[in-house]
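Predicting holo structure, iron/sulfur cluster bound.
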Amino acid sequence: MENNDANENTIVCVNCPRGCRVRVQSQNGEITNITGYQCDLGIDYAREEFKNPTRILPTTVRVKGGELELVPVKTARPIPKASIGEAMQELAGVRVQAPVKRGQVVVEDIAGTGIEVVATRSIALSQKENNTGNKKETG
Ligand code: SF4
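Done. Tokens:
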């Protein structure tokens, strides 16, 4: 019986600024041919992306007592694309106490991936919180 489950995916290699468009042909989920790369890194990247696509997840989480209500965050390393929905749900429930420092870990193990989520900017205490703190110190 003839099997028509053949596909071609184009994957942009991110290993260098050339950004080669690597074409992966497959049949029944198995790679049959890879073209469009200019070095072996492109082959490895395309194979890995085909089997287990991953992404850095940039988003925001809420801040308590900060000068801003949200802090931008990102995963410290790429996480499987399949885990992004669960990660977003988890992050929706996170509240970080100000002050927040750039690079601070806000979640240690996002969506069971073992990968940290870190703040990408600092958020100072709000003036209101600062004033409350000052009153406590002086009063
Ligand atoms: S295949 Fe090689 S040359 Fe092309 S983008 Fe990837 S690393 Fe760069």
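Residues 112 and 123 are 27 Å apart (CA to CA).
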